[in-house]
């Protein structure tokens, strides 16, 4: 995967950066996720501002999340108040949703995202899922009958156009398996810089990480703490193995999970609305796991939490075969 940035980076934050893409653009190792259940605008706006105060510079959003506008407002406020010195210090990711995953709708969707964000460009623009759904406002769950065959080549050409126009400094994908990446690499003029996927000690994605390393694609972890659903049954935050390692090292379970991800060479986006946790989640760079810790984590049973089926209404039938979207690669 990408290498760590040296001292030349423009972001003067304590969060290290990976050098990503053909021109080696710095991407912070930890960013703030902005999916929030329930979504309360003021809470997310405040979390973005607090994160920026604490030194976060990467904010992850998407057309689907309804968070672009508040992210834009918080960033504008941070720039105005001097918390952030200039736009160049920031790293903003957004994503095109399945309902806009059609060649002619990608650029308009990015333009709408930029308007919401009050920005002239995003640092990273991703195809959210390798799946196309009948055009409409971004939403989920989506009807199975609305799934359409995806024109990956046409959609990627539109992504490349976004980059050429200077509206996306880098382009990439999300939720792509090695098979989907291979398909994309065979047609891309500009290869994807990043693949954002579910990644944590309970879904370790060894095959995908090796593949991406080999192809110089930066892996970015989402749901690095096991996500937001079923908090009492969260496989990462309730893991006995992580808890025991945390106890012996004087670290929290969250920190053990995030440190493990960092040691895989992956960057990550983690969501919290709480100042203490936002701070805790970036205190992972001045210590490391032992070989024994890594080997215990390597034995944790594997379970994928987020699947394409979660995005679809349970009823209905799709005429398009989507069996290759959710390949459980170990
Ligand atoms: N590309 C995709 O398809 C995709 C899919 C899912 C998510 N994402 C992105 O990834 C981001 C992160 O993933 P996620 O939101 O699913 O979940 P996550 O970051 O794995 O976990 C967030 C949950 O953990 C809690 N938390 C945060 N820090 C903690 C700590 N130190 N100790 C204990 N609990 C802690 C948060 O609660 P509090 O807020 O109460 O602290 C929140 O409920 C999303 O927000 C989104 O930006 C992308």
Which features characterize this protein?
330 residues, alpha/beta, TIM Barrel, 32% helix, binds NADP nicotinamide-adenine-dinucleotide phosphate
Map the helices and strands.
Blueprint: E1 3-4, E2 17-20, E3 25-28, E4 30-33, H1 41-54, E5 58-60, H2 68-81, E6 91-96, H3 106-117, E7 122-127, E8 132-133, E9 147-148, H4 152-164, E10 168-174, H5 178-187, E11 194-198, H6 206-214, E12 218-222, H7 240-249, H8 253-263, E13 267-270, H9 275-280, H10 291-298
Parallel strand pairs: 4-5, 4-13, 5-6, 6-7, 7-10, 10-11, 11-12, 12-13
Antiparallel strand pairs: 1-2, 2-3, 8-9
Helix pairs in contact: 1-2, 2-3, 7-8
Q: What CATH first level would be assigned? A: Alpha Beta
On the 0 to 100 scale, the average pLDDT is: 95
- Count of extended strands: 13
Helix count?
A: 10
The helix/strand series, from N terminus to C terminus, equals EEEEHEHEHEEEHEHEHEHHEHH
Name the hetero compounds present.
NADP nicotinamide-adenine-dinucleotide phosphate
Helix share of residues?
25-40%
- Unreliable spans are none
The percent range for strand residues is 15-25%
CATH architecture: Alpha-Beta Barrel
| CATH topology tier name | TIM Barrel
Would you kindly provide a written description of the structure presented here, covering whatever features stand out?
The protein has one domain: TIM Barrel, CATH 3.20.20. Helix 1 crosses helix 2 (68-81), helix 2 crosses helix 3 (106-117) and helix 7 crosses helix 8 (253-263). With 330 residues, the protein is α/β, with parallel strands linked by helices. The mean pLDDT is 95. 32% of the residues lie in helices and 16% in strands. The chain has 10 helices and 13 strands. A hairpin with a 4-residue loop joins strand 2 (17-20) and strand 3 (25-28). The chain is globular and about 55 Å long. The protein starts with a strand and ends in a 32-residue tail after the last helix. The strands form 3 sheets. The protein has an 8-stranded parallel beta barrel, surrounded by 4 helices. A 3-stranded antiparallel beta sheet has the order 1-2-3, with no helix packed on it. The protein has a two-stranded antiparallel ribbon with strand order 8-9. It binds NADP nicotinamide-adenine-dinucleotide phosphate.
């Amino acid at each position: 995967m990408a290498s760590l940035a040296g001292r030349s980076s423009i972001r003067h934050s304590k969060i290290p950066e990976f050098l990503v893409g053909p021109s080696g653009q710095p991407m912070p190792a930890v960013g703030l996720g902005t999916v929030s259940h329930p979504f309360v605008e003021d809470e997310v706006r405040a979390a973005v501002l607090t994160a920026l105060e604490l030194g976060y510079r990467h904010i992850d959003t998407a057309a689907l999340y309804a968070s672009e506008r508040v992210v834009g407002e918080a960033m504008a406020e941070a720039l105005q108040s001097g918390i952030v010195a200039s736009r160049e210090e920031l790293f903003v990711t957004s994503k095109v949703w399945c309902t806009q995953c059609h060649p002619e709708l990608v650029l308009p969707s990015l333009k709408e995202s930029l308007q919401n964000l009050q920005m002239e460009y995003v640092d990273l623009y991703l195809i959210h899922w390798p799946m196309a759904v009948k055009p409409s406002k971004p939403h989920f769950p989506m009807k199975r009958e609305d799934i359409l065959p995806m024109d990956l080549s046409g959609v990627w050409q539109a992504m490349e156009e976004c980059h050429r126009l200077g509206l996306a400094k880098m382009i990439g994908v999300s939720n792509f398996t090695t098979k989907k990446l291979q398909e994309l690499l065979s047609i891309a003029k500009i290869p994807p810089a990043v693949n954002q996927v579910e990644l944590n000690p309970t879904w370790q994605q060894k095959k995908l990480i090796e593949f991406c390393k080999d192809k110089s694609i930066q892996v970015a972890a989402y749901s690095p703490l096991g996500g937001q659903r079923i908090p009492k049954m969260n496989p990462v935050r309730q893991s006995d193995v992580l808890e025991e390692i945390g106890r012996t090292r004087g670290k929290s379970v969250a920190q053990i999970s995030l440190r493990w991800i960092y040691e895989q060479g992956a960057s990550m986006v983690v969501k919290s609305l709480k100042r203490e946790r936002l701070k805790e989640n970036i205190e992972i760079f001045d210590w490391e796991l032992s070989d024994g810790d890594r080997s215990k984590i390597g034995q944790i049973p594997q379970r994928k939490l987020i699947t394409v089926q979660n995005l679809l209404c349970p009823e209905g039938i799709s005429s398009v075969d989507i069996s290759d979207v959710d390949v459980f690669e170990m």
